[in-house]
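FYI - complex with iron/sulfur cluster, inputs then prediction.
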Amino acid sequence: MNIPADIESILVHMCCAPCATAPIERLLQDGYKIGLFFSNSNIYPFEEYKKRLNASEKLSGLMGVYLEEDEYEHEKWLEHIRGLESEPEKGIRCSKCFAYSLKRTAQMAEKLGYSHFTTTLTLGPHKVSSMIFAEGENYSNYIPFDFKKKDGYKRSLEMSNEMDIFRQNYCGCEFSMRDSEARKK
Ligand code: SF4
């Protein structure tokens, strides 16, 4: 694949290890120089955050890609989405959540000297890619990869199983945990 000349390197925001598997494989196969950024202050509780971070560190080691970790600032994230706690998944709370992560990634890309950035958030079947792209468009160096394409999600399941990577059962915040529990009843 021909990589556009202005794309020197990409900082890849990873929402979790399973969702990063297939995107990392695809980007490396296409010849991109990438680094990973674990920035997920949306995750609750902290024990769950640590589990997902540990899985991400394992994946980084197995795939040989540098991983940068952001600070965990859940209170700050809660302040960012205040008033939207009752919104359903795929609603405006999620748009604001994407905006939060993309802003952190844009800032870190600049700090670490990556020319561009993207996110693995588009891989998830419960995530609407157009909502993520709409937030990414605020940055000239965001690349709108839609990792659902080319059977990305199916490939992520295969890779996670092969590498024995921890898979969570709710999106991340306490409100998605609440909704996930309600669906089970
Ligand atoms: S459901 Fe997921 S995407 Fe939506 S606000 Fe919660 S953590 Fe963020």
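Residues 92-112 form the longest helix (21 residues). The chain is about 50% helix and 10% strand.
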